[in-house]
Specification:
Layout: E1 3-9, H1 10-31, H2 39-42, E2 45-47, E3 67-69, E4 71-75, H3 79-86, E5 98-100, H4 109-133, E6 138-146, H5 151-166, E7 171-178, H6 188-202, E8 205-210, H7 211-225, H8 256-269, H9 271-274, H10 283-290, E9 300-304, H11 315-326, E10 342-352, H12 356-366, E11 371-372, E12 380-385, E13 394-402, H13 406-421, H14 426-430, H15 438-458
Parallel strand pairs: 1-4, 1-6, 4-5, 6-7, 7-8, 10-11, 10-12
Antiparallel strand pairs: 2-3, 9-13, 10-13
Length: 475
């Protein structure tokens, strides 16, 4: 069994990370009721005997003593991390795996990347190496950060390069939260595009998620739950916005529901690596099968069901609906419509009581309405994990490498250019040591090149499907 380490950076990254660990503990508690430290739990948790000082307290098998998350928590303000350490999950985190400062990055990518990157490089590297040493077979680093602020975008992308240099064989999955139009950080377009250049160059897979999509999904769920219509009783614990257990005990914050959606995405993404299934998908298989070209590694994600209605009792119809929903724009975690764009590849990660025949039937049913590139008409990757999420009988995470991300990137570039043409707020960045104006032009050129790659693929949609020659077999 392989292990993964979660690196949560900045306020947003740490809040989502906290939700993820809460849900992961709840999920393993539901499955592992005997309290035995098994391979499934070891993928994200260490078992530690707290009576032993130093690293000698690691326990590889037997009863669970004290679980410690395989995580590194980084924030240049100490507020969120301190809150976690004083909250219900405080015992899950090893104090040796935390890095905080007091001043913060002031919503400035350059401060996060150039100042704090240099200042904390050795400390971060030491924490990462220590986390890696605790793993028998480290497969993946999950980086969680936001793109709009200073620490998440700047320091979050700085450590990506460090991970690439120090652990070149370990996959780098990045969950990036993109700002909405109503974002209260004026400089977020600068931060996002400077960060995107680093994502283009140093990430293996990026799951872009925008705040507006999360907000729209929550509004949709609230409308359904509060509609009072006959037949819309929602099962307890089935909302994708709900916390698992420990976090319910404290007051809920405005972003908790949004963070829980992202945490559920990560939970489903890693389910096949944690639990048994008839069709397992390793994390490295996602990159291998869904990323045909190095820079086109942005995967659009959708999660379904968002809730389970308590009185729907026709499994086949509900199951088919789950697959249909995964391709509708209302369920995407970024403002995009993959059904009307071009697929390079698609992964379906199914959990719960679903048969391979159900999976194949739904792929065949949906195929005619989806357009794949001519050279990868059978570009499907599938997995079946037998353990469903808590509160659901089954669930589906769809990951699509699709040209539908292009409009979101074009919109971000447009917002960047509005500021950059006027050189507005530029002096805040240029006064940081090591930051030059060429960094901005290089970053927007990098994004434009990415958009151009998607445009070239889109241009092939109108071309007739080539009739590839087939090998003739003499009988």
């Amino acid at each position: 069994m392989t292990q993964s380490v979660v690196v949560q950076v900045g306020q947003c990254g740490n809040q989502i990370g906290c939700c993820f660990w809460d849900l992961a503990l709840g999920e393993h508690a539901a499955v592992n009721q005997k309290g035995i430290y098994d391979e499934a739990i070891s993928s994200f948790f260490r078992n530690v005997d707290t009576r032993v000082d130093g690293d000698g307290g690691n326990i590889s098998k037997g009863k669970i003593c004290s679980l410690k998350a395989r995580a590194v928590l980084i924030d240049m303000e100490e507020g969120v991390v301190n809150e976690i350490l004083q909250g219900p999950l405080r015992d899950v985190f090893d104090s040796k795996q935390l890095i905080t400062d007091i001043s913060g990055s002031g919503n400035n990518w350059a401060v996060g990347h150039k100042v704090f990157g240099r200042l904390y490089q050795d400390q971060i590297l030491e924490k990462l190496r220590k986390s890696a040493e605790h793993c028998d077979c480290l497969q993946c680093f999950f980086v969680i950060h936001s793109m709009g602020g200073g620490t998440g975008s700047g320091l979050g992308t700085f450590l990506l390069k460090m991970l690439e240099d120090e652990f070149p064989e370990v996959y780098r999955f990045v969950t990036s939260i993109y700002p909405s139009h109503e974002d209260d950080v004026i400089t977020s377009p600068y931060n996002s595009i400077l960060a995107m250049k680093e994502l283009n160059e140093h990430a293996d897979c990026v799951l872009p998620i925008d705040n507006q999509s999360l907000f729209d999904i929550i509004s949709k769920i609230d409308l359904m739950v509060n509609s009072g219509k006959l037949g819309t009783t929602v099962k307890p614990k089935s909302l994708v916005t709900s916390s698992a257990g420990a976090l319910k005990k404290r007051c809920k914050k405005p972003f908790d529901a949004m963070n829980n959606i992202v945490a559920n995405l990560l939970l489903n993404l890693t389910s096949s690596a944690r639990f048994e299934g008839s069709l397992n998908m390793d994390l490295n298989e996602i990159s291998m099968n869904l990323v045909p070209f190095p820079q086109l590694h942005y995967l659009v994600s959708s999660l379904t069901p968002l809730y389970t209605l308590a009185d729907v009792s026709i499994p086949p119809r509900r199951l088919d609906q789950m697959f249909s929903d995964a391709f509708s724009k209302d369920h995407q975690l970024i403002q995009a419509d993959p059904k009307h764009s071009l697929y390079l590849a698609c992964a379906l990660m199914v959990r719960g009581n679903v048969q391979i025949s159900d999976l194949r039937r739904n792929i065949e049913r949906l195929k005619p309405s989806l357009q794949f590139v001519s050279w990868n008409q059978e570009g499907w990757k599938t997995s079946l994990c037998s353990v469903p999420p808590v509160g659901h009988s089954h669930s589906l995470l769809a990951l699509a490498n699709n040209t539908c991300v292009k409009p979101a990137f074009m919109d971000l570039r447009e917002r960047f250019m509005r500021l950059y043409k006027k050189k507005a707020h530029l002096h805040h960045y240029l006064q940081v040591e090591g930051m030059e104006e060429s960094s901005f032009s290089e970053a927007v050129s990098s994004l434009s090149a990415l958009i151009q790659e998607y445009s070239q693929l889109d241009a092939t949609r109108s071309l007739p499907m080539p009739d590839f020659p087939r090998l003739s077999i003499a009988v």
